[in-house]
Amino acid sequence: MEDSVLDKIILGHNQFFGINHMSSERGVVREQYFSNINNIIGLIKYAYSQGAGGLMLSTHERSREIAEGLRKDTELANNLHLYILLPYMAKYVRKANERGFVNMIFETLESAGWSERISMGFKGGIGMLKQDPFSMMKAMIDIELLPFKGLNIKAVFLHNSLTDLAIGLGLFPVLDFFNEYISTRHRTSPAFCTLTSGLTMPYFHSEGLLNPIIMAPFNPAGFQMSPSKEACEEALHRVPARVVAMSILAAGYVKPSDACAYLATLPEIKSVIVGASSESHIDEIFESLTVMSS
Amino acid sequence: MENKIFRGGVVGLGKMGLLHSAIINVSKNRTLSAVSESNGIMRRYFSALMPQVNFYEDYKEMLKKETLDFVFITTPPSSHIHIALECHKYNCHLFIEKPLCLNTISAQPLIDALEKHPRITMVGYMMRYDDIFRRAKELIDCAVLGRVISFSATTYVSQQFKAGKGWRYDPEESGGGVLIAQGIHAIDIICWLFGTPRVVNARTNSFYSKTVEDFCHVVFEWTNGMTGWLDSSWSVDHHRMLETSFQIHGENGSLSVNDDILKLYLRTERGGFPRGWTLQTKPELFSGVDIDIGGPQFTRQDVAFFNAIIYGNATENDLKSAYAVQNVVDCIYKSAKSDGHPVLI
């Protein structure tokens, strides 16, 4: 598969699900507003009209509803690129807290209906999945991606917790498997989210995973940039990769103009993901990004 | 010592076992040598994926066959103490996930063993390594608030809205419900910030879980007259992640702290802080870590444990402090059982 060009601006999804890393209270207020699906689709449409070519969506419980909303809008369904982040970790952490790690995985798989199992090519049953970690991972990926079937998926990102966990454990075969499976079975670009890009990017390079798509925080405050802001910048300069900058506003701590001035010093970054909860917010952020790229 | 490679083991490869294993692995001076996991599926998966690590079904066999410098115990709490005692026999330094145990009586043999033959210990109260709560501790210790008079605290997560299944809901295995599973982090922060309270009154409510509490309300009092309360639940709406917050009231102002932001209000300028509001947020206080998996506080905590082993530093959240936290929890449950009767700690 050829290396695909990523959209310059990707609209983030956290605001739709009540996630706000600066203020949980603000997150709840947004969740109330976006409990109406029309408000979500309306904002996506506006962001698209203002230059966001892509939308990030995690496999949150409400993603199915958003995917349905996108399907009903011909222009969005045909032209808006989806960037899927899987899995939605909070859901699995909650389940793992309650049921334990192994029960959480197999109860999730067992909860798939028959039609879902058939469309996943889910053969051999749960017993077989218990023998082989890669079969289990295939089934988990397939089940997570089901709601987005038929939509315009540009890339599928592995959640930062899993990317960074796999790197910590030295599980390159797992990352390599994800890379292959997303390309071959789902025919889209595999991608990796990380909060440790200063470590992740050199690691991928040393293991022979070349020019990967990486989503990682880049902001002037150094927020969520591990092991350090300097190490992340150095890896960015040194290791060829297609990088999507996230947390560019450091959860609201950094002004859009300052964020863009910082990104302008990192020419390797061609793509950014930004969250925005209103049209005026989109106007403010996108204007700064347009100035940066012009 | 600095050039030595320290060999580690993990007992229990669940969510926390995986997280600590990854953190162990990312430094040059320590290595994950062995894992003990009783679940065959997890053992099969990870032994295939990590051929450099020796996997065991039984931790006793692991201890017998391996030479380990330290062990992380990340099994359900009812098993912590007997596993820790066995590891102690093999001279291992001990990291035990929270809670330390089901009750203080069960922990006593380990306390006694460590008195006779001390090892480095740490219990997983990782919130002490969160940037914002560390900052709050510094502010309280340097007395910008003056004497602390009172506080209120909450710890909430939207998790439990029906009867649950598994060991968490069996008090013989878990020790209790939301208080010992999640509220205990706030109890640890309370003891860390203000010292051990003198007396507690508590009420619990087991609306969904039946066998363990879903809601816990506690009132604390200290010998110096300071008071405070904690409200803890895993059955409240609008908290997709565990959120802990404190409102602390002192003679010279107040301090509001949660996972996202710290707000200091001073009536008079003190300690370099102006009169009025000072706000500090998570992005402002953030500092990077070797690897960020579940939040940087987990990595900082584990690094503090490793540094204690290498350099002999003291650990803050050691077994002794966790025992004191456990004692407060015991007294809270005792009070709740006697309809909120005050229990002296």
Q: Can you give a write-up of this model?
A:
The complex is a heterodimer of chains A (294) and B (345). Chain A has helices at 24-33, 37-49, 63-72, 74-79, 89-99, 101-110, 114-119, 125-129, 133-145, 160-169, 172-184, 197-207, 229-238, 256-263, 279-293, and strands at residues 9-11, 54-58, 81-86, 153-158, 189-193, 213-217, 242-246, 269-274. Chain A is of the alpha/beta class. The longest helix of chain A is centred in the last third of the chain and has 15 residues, at 279-293. Chain B has 345 residues and is α/β, with parallel strands linked by helices. Chain B folds into 2 domains: 6-119, Rossmann fold; 127-290 and 324-344, Dihydrodipicolinate Reductase, domain 2 (2-Layer Sandwich). Chain B is globular and about 60 Å long. The mean pLDDT of chain B is 94. Chains A and B meet through helix 1, helix 5, helix 6 and helix 10 of A and helix 1, helix 2 and helix 9 of B.
Indicate the low-confidence ranges of chain B by residue numbers.
none
- What is the structural class of chain A? alpha/beta
Largest sheet of chain A: 8 strands, parallel, barrel
Sequence of secondary-structure elements of chain B: EHEHEHEHEHEHEHHEEEEEEEHHHE
CATH topology of chain A: TIM Barrel
Rounded to the nearest angstrom, the distance between the terminal CA atoms of chain A is 30 Å
Assembly level: heterodimer
Labels describing this entry:
heterodimer; A: 294 residues; alpha/beta; TIM Barrel; 8 strands; 51% helix; 14% strand; globular; B: 345 residues; Rossmann fold; Dihydrodipicolinate Reductase, domain 2; 2 domains; nine-stranded mixed sheet; six-stranded parallel sheet; 11 helices
